[in-house]
Amino acid sequence: MQIALELVPRTLSSLLDEAKTHIANFPKITAINIPDLRSVEIKSFEASHHLLTNGVPTIPHFRLIDRTLTDLEILIEKLIPLGLTQTLLISGDPPFDLATKAPVVGFVPSGVKAPQAIEHIKKKFPQLKVYAGQDSYRQSFRKELDYCKQKLDSGADGFFTQPFFSEGLLSQWLEQLPETEMWIGLSPVTGKNSRNYWETVNQVVFPPNFRFDLDGNCIMGRRILTLIEQANKNSYLMPITISADKYLHGLRFF
What we know:
Elements: E1 3-6, H1 12-25, E2 29-34, H2 44-53, E3 58-63, H3 69-79, E4 86-90, E5 96-97, E6 102-103, H4 114-124, E7 129-134, H5 141-153, E8 158-163, H6 167-176, E9 181-186, H7 192-201, H8 214-230, E10 234-237, H9 244-251
Parallel strand pairs: 1-2, 1-10, 2-3, 3-4, 4-7, 7-8, 8-9, 9-10
Antiparallel strand pairs: 5-6
């Protein structure tokens, strides 16, 4: 099982230091994920360019809602000579106002769809592993599974999933995609604000016995990581609201 660690780029120097430290201290971490966040000044391309230049294996995320196919192609083309071997293309959500619980008025999406982008990038860069997103919460199981199969038909090499908070739900997906490469998401959810974000923005339904504290998240995380390892899949960790170091040590899976 490979494990990727997602880090939000606040500054390029701190990102590089943190990436190198975690890879050195936790040998199962094989790459650094760089999310493409509208709220962060340093975007995935710039951060990934810096990490790759300094020899850090990196998986940049690209939000399709913000880019044309030409923009996407230009960015990826600049990263490949630096050693880029894999990337994640996600549809992306429009800007969301947590106060009003509604999309921001006036935003104009690019119109680029995930299957279209996957096919385009795989044809342009056949040596590149192109992953797509999988989301257990945005629509019915049947519709999401059909959408995943559409992405595979378009050339996707596998999936990066939204975080799982239930072994039962993960088992359903592992049953349906046994031969597909998957990077299973894990993210600690601690406190009222974090819970509100996942329930409001991502439509997550937490199990009735889910514990919203670090110890409870780490206990559940270890069980899910064991299930992932048994299924011969990979994982990526998203310590959004707490330090990566605290979460990695709490998991005690290394």
